[in-house]
Amino acid sequence: MTDRSIRPRRLRSSPAMRRLVAETRLHPADLVLPMFVREGISEPEAIGSMPGVVHHTLDSLPRAVEAAAEAGIGGVMLFGVPLEKDAVGSGATDPDGILNAGIRAAVDAAGDALVVQSDLCLDEFTDHGHCGVLRASTSSATGYEVDNDATLERYRDMALVQAASGAHMLGLSGMMDGQTAVVREALEGSGFVDTAILAYAAKYASAYYGPFREAVNSSLVGDRRSYQMDPANRREGMLEVDLDIAEGADVVMVKPAGSYLDVLADVAATSSVPVWAYQVSGEYAMIEAAAANGWIDRERAIDESVLSIKRAGADVVLTYWALELAERLRRS
Ligand code: PBG
């Protein structure tokens, strides 16, 4: 006879019991909503590859930020989609460029209700679509390569313009070596001592960014494998995180989230700063597409996907479902 006095099912026996023993909970404050603001449109525009997500105009953005604040979510992450692009991404450092104007509009609307974050990367602003500036290279098959240290100069200027526009937190997503140190030093040197840095520390070269590239009209030819991480590498994620913390990151991030829960759990186990995760556009689009076909229970799949990211160790999740989830959590 086996002893059946140990019955794990006891704690699953009623909704009240299950609710009481749940180890992980979602809360609106733990969610950040990524948002797009686009130049040259007069009405918000749907993004085909991301059903339910829109390009905002400078006029529609403030109301959407207020709605996010009313839903109680923790923050928003802004991406800009400019009309004009060039080799060095000049729009990124133009104080009147779309992202910097968007930051000012969002910060005004947010008040102190939520944290306004801005993407600090050149890819939306360069005509070649890379996250940095290029230089000729004889060793590369394409004849060019992304110039790490020249890119850092651009990131430094971008950081100062974004901070001056009022961004509370800068999201360093370009995966250049030394970017956190350069931005931290520039912020300190210019008196922006309270501008926080969110380092996309372990950011992988992922197919799951596909829908986002449509969302930002990416002109990328080729790939980002010489700067974003190889999906094969787990240990290297810790190296990137350790470096970013040493360089002055206030928060570190793992991205994408769902396929990198092992990396996330490693980082969460040792990090001395908050650990966030970005549930990216492809993760969003896959569930939306399966649900639209009737192949998956949409709400359950959304809840499970975000809960799993928290369970693996994320303190905060960036997700395109942030608003919907927050509103649902408030009703329940
Ligand atoms: C870089 C950036 C990207 C994403 C966020 N910041 C694109 C990339 O690295 O190619 C992707 C986000 C998503 O897929 O939802 N500016």
- Ligands, deduplicated: ligand PBG
Tell me the fraction of residues in β-strands, as a range: 15-25%
What spatial order of strands do you see in the largest sheet? 1-4-5-8-9-10-11-12
Classify the helix fraction into a percent range.
25-40%
Describe the main β-sheet briefly: 8 strands, parallel, barrel
What is the β-strand count?
Answer: 12
Unreliable residue runs: none
Q: What string, H for helix and E for strand, traces the elements in order? A: HEEEHEHEEEHEHEHHEHEHHEH
Care to give the gist of this entry?
With 332 residues, the chain is α/β, with parallel strands linked by helices. Helix content is 37%, strand content 17%.
Question: Any chance you could write out the topology, listing elements then pairs?
Answer:
Blueprint: H1 15-21, E1 31-38, E2 45-46, E3 54-56, H2 61-70, E4 75-81, H3 98-110, E5 115-120, E6 134-136, E7 144-146, H4 148-164, E8 169-172, H5 179-189, E9 196-203, H6 210-215, H7 235-247, E10 251-255, H8 261-270, E11 275-278, H9 281-292, H10 298-311, E12 316-318, H11 322-331
Parallel strand pairs: 1-3, 1-4, 1-12, 4-5, 5-8, 8-9, 9-10, 10-11, 11-12
Antiparallel strand pairs: 2-3, 6-7
